[in-house]
Amino acid sequence: xxxxxxxxxxxxxxxxxxxxxxxxxxxxxxxxxxxxxxxxxxxxxxxxxxxxxxxxxxxxxxxxxxxxxxxxxxxxxxxxxxxxxxxxxxxxxxxxxxxxxxxxxxxxxxxxxxxxxxxxxxxxxxxxxxxxxxxxxxxxxxxxxxxxxxxxxxxxxxxxxxxxxxxxxxxxxxxxxxxxxxxxxxxxxxxxxxxxxxxxxxxxxxxxxxxxxxxxxxxxxxxxxxxxxxxxxxxxxxxxxxxxxxxxxxx
Length: 251
Hints:
Strand content: under 5%
Number of domains: 2
Strand order of the largest sheet: 1-2
Largest sheet: 2 strands, parallel
CATH superfamily of the largest domain: E3 ubiquitin-protein ligase SopA
Number of helices: 2
Distance between the termini: 71 Å
Helix content: under 10%
Radius of gyration: 21 Å
Structural class: little secondary structure
Number of strands: 2
CATH topology of the largest domain: Pectate Lyase C-like
CATH architecture of the largest domain: 3 Solenoid
């Protein structure tokens, strides 16, 4: 309590329920620390490295000194952001695991390298958002608009993407193992080297999508619409048709 911990290195520190009331943590390195249920009333954390910090249940008050970005992260984790307008906000390297951000306006928002696992982003507007190397496993993205978003290298395994709009989305090298993409719109999406093993692509639209080196092993393709795709050979086309895919063009 009230300790001077400025510039201290507490990387991945286990500070669950720690009493840091009034502590000076200015410039401290707390990257990856677990601060869940900690007391940060009157604490000073300006210019601290709070990348990937767990803020769930953290107590802060009017006198807690926290950079605007991290105050917003704390607010989203503890109170959700359902329906809010957070367009263009910087949320890079944040831990937003399990947050309720459904129906929010997140256009142009930066979620690069952020942990969004188990979060609710259903019906959210994520057009042009930055989601490179983001953890989106087990996320609810049903009916979300991800058109022209950058999800290169993101992990979307087990993610719910029913009726999601991914037109023009950049998904090169993304992991979509067991992702639920039923009725999703993937026209003009870039899926080069993406892993869609065991994904559900029933009735999904992949017109003009870049499918070079894509992994579709075990994927459900009944009613999925293909056509004018980069990376699809005649041999692959015949195999996909046998699995229920529909091609709207002739090779």
